[in-house]
Write a structure and sequence with these properties.
The structure holds two protein chains of two kinds.
Chain A: E1 2-8, E2 15-23, H1 28-39, E3 46-49, E4 53-56, H2 58-73, E5 78-81, H3 85-94, E6 101-103
Parallel strand pairs in A: 2-3, 2-4, 3-5, 5-6
Antiparallel strand pairs in A: 1-2
Chain B: E1 3-11, H1 18-31, H2 36-55, E2 64-71, E3 74-80, H3 93-105, E4 108-111, E5 119-124
Antiparallel strand pairs in B: 1-2, 2-3, 3-5, 4-5
Helix pairs in contact in B: 1-2, 2-3
Classes of the chains: A alpha/beta, B alpha+beta.
Amino acid sequence: MYQFSIDRETDAPKMVLTISGEIDLFAAPEFREKLYEAVSDVSADVVLNCRDLSYIDSSGLGILLGALKRVRQNSHQVYIRYLKDSIKKLFIITGLDKAFVLEDVQ
Amino acid sequence: MSKQKQIVLAIPPEAAYISLARLTASGLANQLGFDMDAIEDIKVCVSEVLNETISTSSDIKEPITLCFDLTKDGFEVLISRDMLQQSALFTSETGQFALSILETLMDRVILSNDNAGTICLSKTTGRSVPHG
């Protein structure tokens, strides 16, 4: 099970999306629809808060990459915050750590 | 790797059952004494193979069989599905991600060209482990 919520930071013009739970092939279709809808026509940088994301596989990584392409079409960037080490490892293996901005800010 | 025990799981070729295989793999890995990082690696890799197996041949209704061979120092899992064409696997963008993940996190990955489209993953703890 995964959860997905959208919030906008009050002190910055970034759109913050919070992703939690497990994103696998079963959750992928709904996650794709919600995420792409959230970032379509967005005119701000997007922050993905992954503090409570416990699992993601290549299908989820592919969706994140699709979202990044959409955000970049509007000359903005996607920041990914608070990845667990086990998930950050997947970003490094697949080279996605170079595509996104990974942050561990507190 | 000499086999000591074998656990076989057959699941319908549907995404809803991948989590069951993931739980089984992590439970066995925990029992074998793998550390938490290795257990996470094994969970991810079993899922990645199932993702590919299911998403690249959605027209095939035969179940997917996972055969876990517990050995003295780790385990092997053979994932197979009749009629699966190996050449169709790991060709998409996410498939390439999956293959990179498998080859990095597992000790050995073998794609067989048999009729069952078997994929073999193996990982060792680096030490001999008892089986309860």
